[in-house]
Specification:
The complex is a heterodimer of chains A (179) and B (176). Chain A is 77% helix and 0% strand. Chain A is mainly alpha-helical and 179 residues long. Chain A folds into two domains: 6-120, no CATH class; 137-179. In chain A, helix 1 (6-19) runs antiparallel to helix 2, helix 2 (24-38) packs across helix 5 (108-133) and helix 3 (44-56) crosses helix 4 (61-99). The chains are: A mainly alpha (179), B mainly alpha (176).
Chain lengths: 179, 176
């Protein structure tokens, strides 16, 4: 694994953080694909660490994830850089859109472009699901992976439990469950 | 509206939430009901803006700050949103010291798998909202294939999807 320079790190967090539609989940999925699969700046376990801790940090999970990833890759400077480049441009854009709200969303073609980006974000979420699960579908981990996966879907989707509780339970199960 | 008070009100909202729109009742109570800084219509507008722009949905707080205090209000909101993110660093320092323990590794692996399950659960309602016609299903499917089987940059896939949808809208507009 290669550690990025501060400029490379800022470039990636700027692009993914400010150009991914659909909220925090698709953006985190895009980060997972970029940082783990494409650039191999860290591994799935370190991604899991950043993801889990970002989920239990109050506030906007995505910015906590960027801060954690930046810190893991380049220390304090990386954390601050990732947080700033991922947050300032999209916040500025929110200001612009708020100021011009009466004209922007009524434009049908602008809305069509947003719809396309949102559809792609569904694809990004499904791709992230596959990329996260696929390494653990080998014979050794299959039962544990299946049980945790089905359990987490049942608890979050069907029972409506909070993601934090589901992740906490999964962490406890993994801590005590030896294969 | 005083910058510091606005920052503290928005920080309270940010700190009381662990995801997306969870702080909405607190924001409404503070800004619409108690202090009359916003109307319900402006709060709704803020939510729509948060959904229509890239990045986390929690950015609607920036629109709330803008409505309540103009550009300085938006800056106060940005500060309120990014401040809690720094809390993750002490947690990371604590966890990193223990990552060599096999039980911690297993726990993290379980969290990664569960996060995939939680993310899939979040995808289903998002799909209902986002995939409203056949072309959008097609765009989602093509994006999925590209993101799994190629190393294309996610940004280009998203931009391509936006342009494809825009092109299709123009074609349908022309045909009708």
């Amino acid at each position: 694994m290669t550690k990025p320079s501060l400029a490379e790190l800022s470039g990636v967090f700027f692009r993914i953080g400010n150009f991914t539609f659909g909220g925090g989940a698709p953006t985190t999925a895009a980060f997972q694909r970029e940082l783990v699969e494409r650039r191999r700046w860290y591994d799935t376990l370190q991604f899991g660490l950043c993801y889990a801790l970002a989920r239990v940090t109050p506030g906007t999970n995505l910015f906590a994830f960027c801060t954690a990833s930046g810190w893991l890759l380049r220390g304090w400077r990386g954390a601050i850089a990732a947080l700033l480049v991922a947050s300032i441009p999209c916040c500025a854009l929110v200001c612009l859109v708020t100021a011009g709200f009466d004209s922007w969303p009524r434009n049908r073609f602008f809305q069509a472009a947003i719809d396309g980006a949102l559809a792609a974000s569904v694809g990004a979420l499904l791709a992230s699901f596959w990329l996260l699960v696929q390494p653990y579908l080998d014979r050794q981990h299959l039962v544990q992976t299946g049980a945790i996966l089905l359990g987490s879907i049942a608890l979050s989707f069907f029972a409506g439990w909070s993601p934090i509780v589901v992740l906490l339970l999964a962490g406890i199960a993994g801590f005590f469950w030896r294969e | 509206m005083n910058f510091l008070i606005l920052y503290l009100l928005l920080l309270k909202a940010a700190l009381s939430s662990f995801s997306g729109l969870a702080a909405l009742p607190i924001v409404r109570d503070d800004f619409v009901v108690k202090r009359h800084l916003l109307t319900d219509r402006q709060l709704n507008t803020a939510l729509v803006v948060g959904r229509s722009t890239p990045g986390p949905k929690g950015l609607y707080l920036v629109a709330v700050g803008y409505f309540a205090g103009g550009a300085p209000g938006a800056i106060a909101a940005w500060l309120a949103i990014v401040t809690p993110a720094l809390l993750v660093i002490p947690l990371l320092v604590f966890a990193k010291k223990r990552i060599a323990d096999p039980r911690v590794k297993r726990a993290l692996r379980a969290v990664v798998i569960a996060s995939a399950g939680v993310s899939l659960s979040a995808t289903l309602p998002l799909s209902v909202d986002a995939l409203r016609n056949v072309p959008l299903y097609g765009i989602a499917a093509i994006s999925l294939v590209l993101l799994i089987f190629t190393t294309w940059d996610t940004l280009w896939v998203m931009l391509g999807a936006a342009l494809a949808s825009l092109g299709l809208a123009r074609v349908f507009d022309h045909l009708s």
